[in-house]
Amino acid sequence: MALRIDQDHGRFKQIVRGKIKQNLKQYVQQGEMLGKKGKDFISIPVPFIDVPHFKHGSRQGGVSQGDGKPGDALGQGQPQPGDGSGKAGDNEGQHVLEVDVSLDELASILGEELQLPNIERRGSEKIVTTRVKYTGINNIGPQSLRHFKRTFKEALKRQIASGTYNPARPVIIPIKQDVRFRTFKLENLPETNAVIIYMMDVSGSMGDEQKEIVRIESFWLDTWLKSQYKGLETRFIIHDAVAREVDRETFFHTRESGGTMISSAYKLCRDIIKSDYPASAWNIYPFHFSDGDNWSADDTRQCIDLLKSDVLSDVNQFAYGQVESPYGSGQFIKDLREHFSEHDKVALSEIADKDGIYGSIKDFLGRGR
Any idea where the domains of the chain sit in the sequence? Predict the structure, then answer.
């Protein structure tokens, strides 16, 4: 029975995985499910999964049953499907099933569908963390490691063997010789460091729709990079004419009305990297999103100089996503292409709307850097 249950559970997981892969592009474009994210799992709606089986039609009954008379045509007087004359029924409607999918599994599906290569990590230094690994059961140990289930089973076996177990009054009382404890050993696990530094223009030309696109895309970027690195940190920078570091909530919900000086964000990004994330120990991923407007050509030149002299040498990859806006000129990505179109550490992407998120993820993560 247990084997059959395991087989059915495995088959169900494969069906769900197939449904998610089939509809992945739709999930990537939608932001609703992001609000249902837990610590390690996310609820995803999948089309109702039904195992084929025979079921009764709408007209039931056997031969010679009903109110008909000899000579009546079959089906006479019965409402036909779609003619609007039917009554309210009590049958089930179409359902959507919500399933919990781990973020690791979601990342795996994303990688398969977009054919994303595993990231080539750089840096020789690593953080080493200690993990407790439980290795077995023993009859001695501290009370904090007492294994209740095994203790209960030992007491039950002893009482049955001694004839003191009463099924009519199944009271199990462990004694000292019944108590069992978990045994463990400590493992040193190296964890490669990585940090994502998100930067976003929050000037008046970046509206709620553009920020929603950034919010959705950042979820998928996070999900993939977390599957590649065990130690992942995230920092957030917003900018208009000046830049400042904020928390995640502020990052996605702040809107200013001033102008735009992109160099202010790149300077702050550079300073954060220099002070907190030495390139020898960290894999560094700056992602910048804007609508392509900048204050002046002089500031754009300053941005290009900052990237060339201070940023690109320290990072795995610098990514710029230009979100289309009715108020943005879209010039900045053209300037970046002019200077970095052949640079292997620069990934550029234009995101016209939510439909463009799917391809943009591939633009950013498809190089395996």
Answer: 2-50+94-114, 127-189, 192-365
Phi, psi of 34 (to 5 degrees): -65, -25
Global confidence as pTM? 0.65
- Please work out, in degrees rounded to the nearest 5, the angle formed at the alpha carbon of residue 325 by the alpha carbons of 323 and 331: 75
Alpha helices by DSSP H, listed for the chain, are: 2-22, 24-29, 103-114, 148-162, 208-228, 248-253, 262-276, 297-306, 332-340, 357-365
| pLDDT tens, residue by residue, 232-285 | 899 999 999 899 999 988 998 887 767 789 999 999 999 999 999 998 889 999
**Alpha carbon separation from 123 to 114, 194, 256, 315 (Å, rounded):** 26, 10, 38, 11
Summarize pLDDT for 300-347 with one digit per residue, the tens. Answer: 999 999 999 999 999 999 999 999 988 777 899 999 999 998 899 999
User: At which residue do the structure tokens 């690195």 appear?
Assistant: 229
Q: What is the CATH code for 192-365?
A: 3.40.50.410
Alpha carbon distance 316, 311 (integer Å): 10
d(CA 132, CA 141): 15
